[in-house]
Amino acid sequence: MVSYKLTYFDGRGAGEICRQIFAFAEKKYEDNRLSDEEWAKFKATGKSPYNQLPLLEVDGKPLAQSHSMARYLAREFGINGKTHWEEAQVNSLADQFKDYYSEARPYLAVKLGYTEGDADELYKTVYLPAFKKHYGFLSNALKASGKGFLVGDSLTWIDLLVAQHSADLLAREGESLFKDVPEIKTHSQDIQAIPQIKKWIEKRPVSDW
Hints:
The chain is an alpha+beta fold. 59% of the residues lie in helices and 9% in strands.
């Protein structure tokens, strides 16, 4: 039997997508959550290939980078797309999401307290343009699918990734942000109402990020 261990900090962040994939697939894994002090010690062991988290260990073999980890688990558990073309579409949207996050990062870093700056000004000049552009792409994908999923007619891991981020935005920024893309708000609510995901959300440790 395959053993899985996910090592990350005690927050959602980049580790949450794998946790939700495990939850949806109802697969057991070790959810190893580190404090900053524990991470410094873990890092010194050299177990993390790129000296960063999250880290997935499969039968003791390490795999880094959150999207690569998610792709691997999604393929193992059948939510990576039903065809090679759907898989490519999922990967395309995941890469687009990285572009969005890269553009939005200056605002998000200030908003979440990682760096200093004028959050209100960054929201207007940096974040809103990035949100409108990239969430417009997500809206197009959702409408093209016509099935309530971003790709095809069933859940893929990109649905989990986008739904969680949208849920975080709804909680932090408010519903008005989604006034031009209400279907993405509905998508987030529907995905997070899937029984396995809802159960996980209800029991996961409370976190601001």
